[in-house]
Write a structure and sequence with these properties.
By secondary structure, the protein is mainly alpha-helical. It has helices at about 1-10, 15-40, 40-50, 55, 60-75. Keywords: Membrane, Transmembrane, Transmembrane helix.
């Protein structure tokens, strides 16, 4: 089992690594959008960058999607889990 962990640490699967990074980025963007919306400053941000409107409209979905992608990538990557 230790050999599997060493192999995973030395040679990470790049596809799953990319999915994990995208998941983290979506989670961060969604969380920031949720916080800005709760504080009430989303109108100021959308006034400056109107292209972010879909992010603010779907911020909770984007956050949940990011967490799901990250968790999927990490559970598929883990050599400890028998799948």
């Amino acid at each position: 089992m230790d050999a599997d962990i060493d192999t995973a640490a030395e040679d990470p699967p790049l596809g799953l690594l990319a999915v994990a990074v995208v998941g983290l980025l979506l989670t961060a963007a969604g969380a920031i959008a949720v916080v800005l919306d709760l504080v009430g400053t989303s109108d100021i941000v959308l006034g400056v960058v109107p292209a972010l409107t879909p992010l603010f409209d779907l911020s909770l979905f984007v956050t949940v999607l990011g967490v799901a992608l990250f968790l999927f990538a990490m559970t598929e990557w883990s050599p400890d889990l028998d799948t």
